[in-house]
Amino acid sequence: MNALRHFLADDDLTPAEQTAVLALAAEMKADPFKHRPFEGPRSVAILSDKATLRTQLSFHAGVAELGGNPMFVDGRLAGIGTRESIADSAKVLSGHVSAIVWRTGAQQRIEEMAAQATVPVVNALTDEFHPCQVLADLQTITEHKGFLHGIRFGYVGDGANNMANSYLLGGALAGMHVRIGAPEGYQPDPAMVARAETIAAKVGGSVLITDSPLEAVRSADVVATDTWVSMGLEEENEARTVAFGAYQVNADLIDHADAEAIVMHCLPAYRGKEIMAEILDGPRAVIWDEAENRRHAQKAILTFLDRAARGE
Ligand code: NVA
């Protein structure tokens, strides 16, 4: 049966589906030109309302490897929701492409797109979630640690941003112990924490929110951070630099993690702010793997959604 599925937030996949997508991503990485589901070529629209390097590169290259035709659309030209309603744009897009990838602001915008589209919609970052990055990160953790279930994952910094939310949900789905260390005022929304806790209770992981960066990374297998100032929040730069000062990933903090801990950052990174250069450019960092795995993970999720839409 055909089932139109979207990937708007990490928990749009079940734990078993997440495992299957990650296995497919690993297969695709090992043999990048074997899977050609978009042969035709069928087109995939890659729309962006915000700055992008990894996203446009990885989706463009990935769709091409899948045999498809990637079409990058600059959101400033398209004016989705301003020049034209999201609903009308969704219908126009659905008439031309086999999947819609969108980087935008409010989560509600991508939900509206998905509600009106007749092809799968993939979240390539919203203010609330960055699920493609977390799939790539889970692939990266698997490569370096060999497994996900039971991994102690410590994230420090902005606990209320898209990466923190996606780590909460995606990490819980994978059965990890997700700890978020963030100052008060920048901790995840309680509803998001509850959503992750419900998943963790079923899968066997756990969720912890703390204002102590040390507690977040203690004995962690993975230490992660992200910019203190996400896209769109540039005016808060000064206040955030003060608020997050004690949440920097540096050698002192890493000393509290497991001796074999790896360090993650979705990039772009600001050396000397959320992470010290010696860590970001040091031997524990797996940032280039994360950046590359965007392509493999996204090829896998596009293929998964396409198979569902075509009833395969
Ligand atoms: N939290 C960051 C992630 C960038 C990939 C932002 O939204 O700007």
Secondary-structure topology with pairs:
Elements: H1 15-30, E1 43-48, H2 54-65, E2 69-74, H3 75-78, H4 86-94, E3 99-103, H5 107-116, E4 121-123, H6 131-145, E5 152-156, H7 162-173, E6 177-181, H8 190-203, E7 206-210, H9 213-217, E8 222-225, H10 237-243, H11 251-254, E9 262-265, H12 277-280, H13 287-309
Parallel strand pairs: 1-2, 1-3, 3-4, 5-6, 5-8, 6-7, 8-9
Helix pairs in contact: 1-6, 1-13, 2-13, 4-5, 6-7, 6-13, 7-8
User: Which sheet architecture does the biggest sheet show?
Assistant: 5 strands, parallel
Percent helix, as a range, is: 40-55%
Share in β-strands:
5-15%
What is Rg? Answer: 19 Å
In total, the number of strands is 9
The first-to-last residue Cα distance is 8 Å
Mean pLDDT: 98
Could you give the order of the helices and strands? HEHEHHEHEHEHEHEHEHHEHH
Bound molecules: norvaline
User: Which outline best applies?
Assistant: globular
Which consecutive residue ranges, at least 5 long each, have pLDDT under 50?
none
Supply the number of helical segments.
13
Class from helix and strand fractions: alpha/beta
Query: Going across the major beta sheet, what is the strand order?
Result: 7-6-5-8-9
